[in-house]
Design brief:
Elements (H helix, E strand, L loop, with lengths): L3 E12 L2 E12 L3 E6 L5 H8 L7 E6 L2 E3 L4 H6 L2 E4 L11 H6 L5 E2 L2 E2 L1 H14 L15 H14 L4 E5 L7 H16 L3 E6 L2 H7 L2 E6 L2 E7 L5 H9 L17 E11 L6 E11 L3 E5 L6 H9 L6 E6 L2 E2 L5 H7 L1 E4 L3 H5 L6 H5 L10 E2 L2 E2 L1 H15 L16 H14 L4 E5 L7 H16 L3 E5 L3 H7 L2 E6 L2 E6 L6 H8 L6 H8 L1
Parallel strand pairs: 3-10, 3-11, 6-9, 9-10, 15-22, 15-23, 18-21, 21-22
Antiparallel strand pairs: 1-2, 1-4, 4-5, 7-8, 11-12, 13-14, 13-16, 16-17, 19-20, 23-24
Helix pairs in contact: 13-14
């Protein structure tokens, strides 16, 4: 008899127009790392939300240590030792790290908050697991990787023994991913049991003991990682062979589409500039990739180019027009498309429908409005076209409220909208974040096709595979400056890493300083 700590038996969960989980059985062994793999919208997050008490299943039962349990809400889950790190973090942005960790389980004595005791426990846990945090930092001022550490410490503070990670690496740098993998291995050695939702096959092969594959709400099967391959897992997941390399011909760069000169952007968190005197061009028909470890000014650079932040110096020219001080709609009309870093904050209006979100950048065009009145039928037809073309999965089609869609399908909706609208420059920040291998393959093809149609692409990515495979030129950012320009065909990941860490700079840069 296997030692299962959690059994989810014949779980069925339905939403309007969709069966998210269709009679799924999942068993978690004590002390194992169990991966949950599937395409965007396959039902992975829904299944884990049922286990964590966020949703109630219509059918099926959950057992812990062989005993049937009733999990009505996350408090019930916590009482059973089940914790969850969500794909989109559940943190209060204007609270400190410590306040977020103890929220809901505040240690009190005679009605007074015992913060000192809580702080000691948090510092002990962060030391023990190598999750270095400053308990007094405010959440909105720290990096996404640090925010994730706070979510993990929340679980540990509650003494959870079953840890659910929902897409934990989607927002992390390669270095942070390695650290997280080590932390997960440490948890498993201690006897904690981990359920790990991911699309990234390399990570599953590296840390998981077993993997359960879901497809369109159904369970395809569970396999031992040591007995399978990456290719086999991808076949189970998308039902076909997936091409892991990007097929593209040599770039044929044309005229300059985007010209950035001596751009300086102040930092929101410290006195130094986040972007310091940066200059580069993007030409029609080429993919220029900005690579770098997260937090080296890429976010602020893109925010200044797209109009989300003001530059304090320098100029930005798009299609020959100075847009340094232009508003976002002017930039859009001048020929800029933007796939933003944070899809929920800057890419979508979550309580609008899918069709409304798909025309956000175009609803004022004659095709979609007449004397200020929206033309609903053309919008519906346009939305149906993009939904089909980009395989955006949603329970009620164009009428689905975007908030209810999976993160990967939200991302596909943004990509569909931005690539389909008229543009000369596509600014794509982490375009494949949170997407499955099949969707990544499709999006890379679309980006290359956009390049081949004569558009300029500015790609910002933390995924080294994506940087090496998709780009025609690589610009490396370190501490707010461009420290290297590399040809992906003449470099490797090791050299790229040296530039990213600041250990190496282009000789041209050094000579410039020497003069």
């Amino acid at each position: 008899m296997e030692d299962y700590i959690i059994e989810m038996l014949n779980i069925t969960k339905e939403f309007p127009g969709i069966v998210a989980n269709d009679n799924i059985t999942l068993r978690l062994k004590r002390g194992e790392i169990h991966a949950l793999l599937g395409e965007n919208g396959a039902g992975k997050s829904t299944l884990m939300s049922v286990l964590f008490g966020l949703y109630q299943a219509e059918k099926g039962e959950i057992r812990k240590n062989g005993q049937t349990v009733n999990i009505k809400n996350p408090n019930d889950a916590n009482a059973l030792g089940i914790g969850m790190v969500h794909q989109h973090f559940k943190l209060v942005e204007n609270f400190t790290v410590l306040e977020n960790i103890i929220l809901g389980v505040e240690p009190c004595k005679f009605g007074f908050l015992q913060k000192k005791k809580a702080r000691e426990k948090v510092m002990e846990l962060s030391e023990q697991y190598g999750l270095k945090v400053n308990p007094d930092d405010v959440i909105e001022k720290i990096t996404v990787g640090m925010q994730q550490r706070v979510e993990i410490l929340k679980m540990l503070f509650r003494d959870n023994e079953i840890l659910i990670f929902d897409e934990p690496t989607a927002v992390l740098t390669p270095q942070e991913i390695d650290e997280l993998m080590d932390i997960m291995r440490g948890f498993a050695k201690e006897g904690k049991s981990i359920l790990f939702i991911t699309h990234k096959l390399n990570e599953i092969m590296a840390v998981a003991d077993r993997c359960t594959v879901l497809w369109k709400g159904k369970c395809i099967g569970t396999v031992n990682i040591k007995d399978t391959t990456k290719e086999e897992l991808s076949r189970m997941m998308v039902g076909r062979d997936v091409n892991f390399s990007v097929d593209k011909e040599e770039a044929k760069p044309g005229d300059v589409v985007l010209s950035v000169r001596n751009l300086t952007v102040p930092s929101r968190t410290h006195k130094k500039n986040a972007v310091n005197n940066v200059s580069f061009d993007v030409r029609a028909g080429e993919i220029v990739c900005i690579a770098g470890i997260d937090g080296n000014g890429q976010t602020e650079l893109v925010s200044a180019i797209t109009g989300l932040e003001k530059a304090s110096g320098g100029t930005i020219t798009l299609c020959g027009k100075d847009i340094t001080k232009a508003n976002i709609r002017t930039r859009s009309k001048t020929g800029m498309s933007h796939i933003p870093e944070d899809r929920q904050k800057h890419g979508l209006i979550l309580d609008y429908t899918l069709e409304q979100n798909l025309v956000l950048q175009r609803y004022w065009e004659p095709e979609f409005q007449n004397h200020g009145f929206i033309k609903r039928e053309p919008i519906r037809a346009y939305a149906d076209k993009l939904i089909g073309q980009y395989d955006v999965r949603s329970g009620q089609g164009p009428e689905t409220i975007v908030r209810s869609m999976s993160g990967g399908n939200q991302q596909k909706a943004i990509i569909a909208r931005e690539i389909d609208k008229k543009h000369e420059l596509l600014v794509a920040v982490q375009p494949t974040r949170g997407l499955d291998v099949g969707a990544i393959e499709y999006i890379h093809k679309q980006i290359v096709a956009d390049r081949d149609a004569g558009k300029g692409i500015l790609l910002v990515s933390l995924e080294l595979d994506e940087v090496m495979n998709v780009s025609d030129r690589i610009l490396v950012m370190y501490e707010g400056e461009i420290v290297g320009e590399l040809d992906p065909d003449k470099t490797d990941v090791q050299e790229l890493g040296l530039y990213m860490s600041g250990a190496k700079r282009n000789l041209a840069k050094e000579n410039e300083h020497a003069q």
